[in-house]
Design goal:
By secondary structure, chain A is mostly helical. The first copy, chain A, contains 10 helices and no strands. The relative contact order of chain A is 0.10. The interface between A and B is large, with 61 and 61 residues. The first copy, chain A, binds a DNA duplex through α3.
DNA sequence: TCAACGAGTGAGTGATCACTTACTCACCAT
DNA sequence: ATGGTGAGTAAGTGATCACTCACTCGTTGA
């Protein structure tokens, strides 16, 4: 007669969280235009009408997803610590390792690219939280080390972007274009950091400067 | 003989070329799903029905656009020439300069990203012609220079991808994410090449190896 | 002169889109 | 019990999608 008490139905908040999770993976896989509200409802296990009880429009749901993703601060703290010690290699390794780390869900990168390509209004904010923080912080550190004479006199922002570029491009190749990785995670990070800090030209050989 | 009237209407081939050009810029701007056949027809100045006389489906039109873009060979020839002279700086500058050159139409990069994200079947082929050729060729050169002892002993493919990554990421920031460029074209290229060949750490200072 | 033909289009087609309406049902304080 | 409330949905809504059909032109070879 009476429905079991422990099998209560999900609260509104749980529903909303599940809805956002389901929608996020669909938007990441197929883009905003490529995802239908019917699909989202089905993936979340609810009716299509209920989707619109939680969010007034499909676009509002999309905006909620972009707004939900926040910056990871624990990495920036670790970077800060290594920066104090002037441990160049570790600063760069931390950032590269974070951006390449293999376990991270690939939906964030796809979400970021889709939102930028499709021109969503929250794309800038999303980009700021997901990317700009990294190369802004890195640029600060490079500038500091240039002033200290440890680094060559380069444009700090350009250099920071160059390094992040190497790493992000690596993820791009792997996750978006399906290029296989023939080296291990750690190997790759080490190579990138080494390359960036010390360059490609053999130290004991012809410097063409 | 056919009388060339000066007020003739466009031939079928000219129509097709105009159609492809109009569709390409729309697909690049809004993606496959985001572009309607009605828009394409309007941009090409023809009726929607005529679009389907040229291409059986919207997808076939998209495929024709991707298939049309071919590899630029003149750059690879110039690279080849500098490679023979072992002019490292010029080899890298040529590739970087080509990938960053300011006048290039930005539709190709957007087209490439959209096709990869949306998972079009011709995306791999498109990627191969637009990107892989560059880092494959560059990897060959790096491998050669490593064997000659001029470059440090790094994974050539990884190093090539790292360099292309710096440059492509730069375009990505500028064209997709709207980040402003605070340096000139030539300045940027020079900095990237310099960074990659000689590294960031000051040559006369603490080598942390 | 005129039939044949390719270029071109207006007016649709059913399917699918985002979104709405009108409703049921479980639950609970009164 | 009862009525109010929030969770939930079946069955739509008009708009728009990719694509088709029936048709009109202008040109051209015989």
């Amino acid at each position: 007669m009476r429905p079991p008490l422990n099998t209560r139905r999900p609260s509104s908040q749980e529903r909303q969280a599940g809805l956002i999770a389901a929608a996020a993976s669909l938007f990441a896989a197929k883009g905003f235009k490529g995802t239908t509200t019917k699909e989202i409802a089905k993936a979340a296990g609810i009716s299509e009408a209920l989707v619109f009880k939680h969010f007034p429009t499909k676009r509002a749901l999309y905006a909620a997803i972009l707004a939900e993703k926040v910056t990871v601060s624990e990495l920036l703290e670790a970077v800060e610590e290594s920066a104090k010690k002037r441990d160049d290699r570790r600063v760069f390794t931390l950032i590269a390792g974070y951006r390449i780390r293999p376990d991270v869900d690939s939906t964030l990168l796809r979400l970021l690219l889709f939102s930028a390509l499709e021109g969503h209004e929250l794309s800038d904010m999303f980009f700021g939280k997901q990317h700009r923080v990294f190369y802004d912080r890195l640029a600060d550190y490079i500038q500091l080390r240039v002033k200290e004479g440890a680094f060559r006199n380069v444009d700090p922002l350009l250099a920071a972007r160059a390094f992040i570029g190497m790493v992000v491009h690596h993820r791009l190749l792997h996750e978006i274009f399906g290029v296989p990785m023939h080296r291990t995670h750690d190997d790759t990070v080490t190579t990138y950091v080494e390359l960036f800090l010390h360059g490609l030209v053999h130290p004991s050989k012809s410097r063409t400067t």
